[in-house]
Design brief:
Mean pLDDT: 94
Number of strands: 7
CATH architecture: 3-Layer(aba) Sandwich
Structural class: alpha/beta
Strand content: 25-35%
Shape: globular
Order of helices and strands: HHEEHEEHEHHEHE
Number of helices: 7
Distance between the termini: 37 Å
Strand order of the largest sheet: 3-2-1-4-5-7-6
Radius of gyration: 16 Å
Helix content: 25-40%
Low-confidence stretches: none
Oligomer: single chain
CATH class: Alpha Beta
């Protein structure tokens, strides 16, 4: 179900905006079914580490991984446990992932650790809406939403989480994604670096 939602046309358009920005040695946190593979610019990619804790998603990813024109190394651990050396990734890619990581603080700390100085964390995440009425509904519905949507939180303040974890937002845009319920469709996308 999550793969179906995350591959809807409006969400794919968001992926198309951010994934081609990734370059060098890339850590994709929450690779899922490998849905981002076609959006990478192969001329910019040295290799990709695909961090994905779900065995079902890793199996589902095999079809897309076979089509990848670059090396992809799957890692079957959660975002809180990144088994890479310090300063080993040129880019970290987060697409609709931070909403589901239980220990987001630890995960972002790990991402900061493995990102090289001068590297970039590229993100496209849904989260807390700016409108008070929508935000109120997000907070009310979040407990039930988490249960039916694989641990997804619809009310996480993504920019705040990034900044609290030592990332500086270099550029960011946000909007309600068309054809998506407003309570789950407010999306932030952009580029951040380490302070």
């Amino acid at each position: 179900m999550l793969n179906l939602v995350c591959s809807s046309s409006p969400i794919l358009k968001q992926r198309e905006k951010v994934v081609p920005l990734a370059e060098g040695r890339i850590l994709e946190v929450g690779m899922g079914s490998g849905i981002n593979i076609p959006y990478y610019d192969p001329k910019k990619v040295d290799m990709v580490w695909g961090l994905e804790p779900s065995e079902g998603m890793r199996k589902k990813a095999q079809k897309n991984l076979k089509k990848a024109p670059f090396t992809v190394e799957m890692i079957d651990l959660p975002g809180e446990e990144i088994p890479l050396d310090d300063n080993s990734a040129d880019t970290i890619l987060l697409t609709y992932t931070l909403c589901t990581i239980p220990g987001w603080q630890q995960a972002l700390s790990q991402m900061r650790r493995v990102l090289k100085p001068g590297g970039r964390l590229i993100f496209c995440e849904h989260g807390e809406a700016p409108d008070e009425n929508i935000k109120k509904w997000q907070n009310r519905l979040n407990p039930a939403w988490k249960k039916i949507a694989g641990g997804c939180h619809i009310n996480r303040p993504i920019p705040k989480y990034l900044m609290e974890s030592g990332f500086k937002i270099e550029s960011m845009e946000s909007q309600y994604i068309p054809s998506t319920p407003k309570i789950a469709g407010y999306t932030y996308w952009g580029v951040s670096t380490i302070y």
